[in-house]
Write a structure and sequence with these properties.
Layout (H helix, E strand, L loop, with lengths): L6 H13 L23 E7 L6 H15 L3 E7 L2 H11 L8 E4 L2 H8 L8 H4 L14 E2 L2 E2 L2 E13 H6 L9 H13 L5 E2 L6 H14 L2 H10 L6 H13 L20 H6 L5 E5 L2 H5 L12 E4 L14 E10 L5 H10 L2 H9 L5 E2 L11 H12 L3 E3 L1 H4 L2 H15 L5 H14 L1
Protein name: Extracellular solute-binding protein
Keywords: Signal
Pfam families: SBP_bac_1
Length: 435
């Protein structure tokens, strides 16, 4: 691939976006006395992850099985759960005496909030001799310079689109500006093709839209200052809502989009694109493997391609700035040293390569596994990620948990015809005051 920026630049951009949100926190408690004292003692690690469907479910199980084979004293109880349900389970578990040994971790401000529970393991001593292989991206799973999680893949959000439906509508090139995107929507509707699918039932897909308008209207410095200082006082934030309101007025989405889930079933927003029922979806790079069980068309991937969110005329944000993040895992304090060693294994080049080759991960956190990417669309996504001058982590993840959730709720209400551009900003401000 011909890329303008090196892999270290890619990782650094994501790391900056994540670490901007991490305030200084002191854990409320310490369960270290419950951790196994002997690294060789038999232990069973309970592992919660969000690969609740194939191929990921079997792949992660095989990784646990191989580690157990190599380390017979370490056994696993693997419990996959659907993404939205898992986030709720993790939140509840961290308030209980017995959180899982290993659980899905997205870093950022949400991780900083979780650290306050005193139940998340500081893995700094166990990782200091190898964490550098992941580059600066690993910093997104740090709080106060301490490693509380390990990423296994990185993400960027953009438009997945059906090349065949674009051809039917006479769209000859992916839109590069909002004017071109609006024109594409009109051409698709003229051919009775649903232009864009969205899984508004789950709220977070709605947030992608507002977030992208925000990082196009606001300069990177304003965005960084807002995440750091929790003050949304620049008029660009309201302008982002006005842009979104204008776009919603074009009716670009499927019928009953407010009740459509993002990833569950053929009728989800991902399923609509996978089955050729909609032409586009604003989603992360993970959407390609997500679609596999949602369609009987085994050739669907060859009909897809990807393009970044268009430029917004007059906006102060860099048109190349992307919205993204990553997936990783944290260990509970009670899990002991075996957990940290297992996450070292997950971050290894061999395992990261396996994750990419099996469509379990798309953009690996370990740069040595990038060569495993073979799908042409994912190579396009990787190139866009490499070129991005800055990666803004999803606001619901970058901000403190309660603030990010309030922002998502306000945007979802806006999609449902409630509230106003100023109301989204007001919801943020109120959540900051109440956190």
């Amino acid at each position: 691939m011909n890329v303008r920026l090196s892999t270290p630049r890619r990782l650094a951009a994501i790391a900056i976006g994540l670490t901007m949100a991490l305030p200084s926190l002191t854990a409320c408690g310490d369960d270290s006395s419950n951790a196994p004292a002997d690294a060789n003692s038999p232990v069973t690690l309970t592992w919660w992850h969000n690969a609740a469907q194939e191929p990921g479910m079997s792949v992660w199980q095989s990784i646990a099985d191989q580690y157990h084979k190599d380390h017979p004293n370490v056994s696993f109880k693997v419990e996959p759960a659907q993404n939205e349900a898992l986030k709720t389970k993790i939140s509840v578990a961290l308030q209980s005496p017995n959180p899982p040994s290993i659980f899905q971790q997205w870093g950022g401000g949400a991780l900083a909030t979780q650290v306050q529970s005193g139940k998340i393991m500081d893995m700094t001593p166990q990782t200091q001799d190898w964490i550098s292989q992941l580059g600066a991206a690993a910093k997104g799973w740090q709080v106060d310079g301490k490693q509380y999680g390990i990423p296994y893949d990185l993400h960027v959000v953009g438009f997945w689109y059906r090349k065949d439906l674009f051809d039917q509508a006479g769209i000859t090139a992916p839109p590069k500006t909002m004017a071109e995107l609006n024109d594409a929507v009109a051409k698709l509707k003229a051919k009775n093709i649903t232009p864009i699918s969205v899984g508004s039932k789950d709220k977070w897909p709605d947030a992608f839209w507002w977030s992208y308008f925000a990082i196009r209207e606001c300069s990177t410095q304003v965005v960084q200052d807002t995440v750091k200082n929790l003050k949304m006082d620049d008029p660009c934030w309201v302008k982002a809502g006005e842009d979104l309101k204008a776009f919603l007025a074009t009716n670009p989405f499927q019928n009953a989009f407010l009740g459509t889930p993002a990833q569950q079933g053929a009728g989800s927003s991902a399923g609509l694109v996978a089955n050729g029922k909609a032409a586009m979806e604003l989603q992360g790079d993970w959407e390609l493997p997500t679609m596999i069980p949602l369609t009987e068309d085994k050739q669907f991937a060859s009909k897809l391609s990807w393009f970044p969110f268009p430029a917004v005329e007059g906006g102060k944000g860099d048109a190349g700035t992307a919205l993204g993040g990553g997936d990783g895992f944290s260990c509970s304090v009670k899990a002991g040293p075996a957990c940290a060693d297992f996450l070292k294994y997950v971050a290894s080049t061999d395992v990261q390569t396996k994750l990419v080759q099996t469509n379990t991960a798309t953009l690996p956190a370990n740069p040595q596994a990038i060569s495993a990417i073979q799908d042409p669309s994912l190579k396009t996504v990787q190139e866009a990620l490499n070129k991005a001058p800055y990666i803004q982590v999803y606001f619901d993840q970058a901000l403190p948990t309660s603030v990010g959730q309030a922002l998502n709720d306000a945007v979802a209400d806006f999609f449902a015809g409630k509230g106003s551009p100023q109301g989204i900003v007001d919801a943020f401000t109120k959540a900051v005051a109440n956190k």
